[in-house]
Amino acid sequence: MKAGSEARAVILALSDPFRLALVTRLALGPASAAELAADLDVPVEQVRYQLKRLRAAGIVTIHGEREHRGAVERTFVADGRKLVFRGEELAGLPERELRGHDTELLRIFFREVVEAARTGSLFDEDEHFLVRMPLLLDAQGFREVGERFEAALDRLLEVRTQCLARLEEAGEKPRSATSAFFFFEIPK
């Protein structure tokens, strides 16, 4: 579990759209600063600077080193577990910071869903689905659904780790995907 100050450092680091773009890319797999700069069409110095900030916040770690053009080049990866916040970890954080973080994540997700629908990839395979399920819950049911979401998230992160290892070993091309969990009380 992250302490409140650690959660705040992560949320502040992710409040910058460029750093969030770096983390999003690194969540899909390891990359060097040069690869990230090329992917995002920005100077490599800007990427290196922001990677230092993301590493300081504990979101990004060094994945490995490789020789490239006679020099040692580091590759980085985002730690998916650092991007998960439990309710108690957010206690005491300023509401403005939390709202900004949540709003940006919802914007990104909405753009991804719209693009997937526009290109038809949302409907290409049986594995793609969207579910919206209004629920009437008592306090215990609300806690139980939250616990189920937490368990599903933990399993999803395990699958992600296993996939990254298999992809690295097999050298096959990965499939990019987005998964989102939404569970909230509807204001009356």
Write the layout of secondary structure elements.
Blueprint: H1 4-14, H2 17-27, E1 31-32, H3 33-40, H4 44-56, E2 60-68, E3 71-78, H5 87-90, H6 95-119, H7 139-170
Antiparallel strand pairs: 1-3, 2-3
Helix pairs in contact: 2-4, 3-4
Plain-language structure description:
The protein is mostly helical. It is 55% helix and 10% strand. The protein contains seven helices and three strands, in the order H-H-E-H-H-E-E-H-H-H. It has a three-stranded antiparallel beta sheet with strand order 1-3-2. Strand 2 (60-68) and strand 3 form a beta hairpin. It starts with a helix and ends in an 18-residue tail after the last helix.
Measured by DSSP, the beta-strand proportion falls in: 5-15%
pLDDT < 50 runs, ≥5 residues? none
Structural class, please? mainly alpha
Number-wise, the strands total: 3
Give the count of helical stretches.
7
**Series of H and E elements:** HHEHHEEHHH
Brief summary of the model shown:
The chain is mainly α. The chain is built from 7 helices and 3 strands.
